[in-house]
Amino acid sequence: MGRSGRIKEWLITFVVLAGIAFGIAVAAREPASKGASASFDTSSVYWSDGDSGRLADGVEFRLHGVDAPETGPLDWVSGAKCERERELGYAAKARVRELTRAGALTVSFNYGPDRYGRLVVDLSLEGQDLAALLVAGGTHRTWDYDGGDSKPNWCTGRTQGPVTGS
Question: pTM score, two decimals?
Answer without folding.
Answer: 0.68
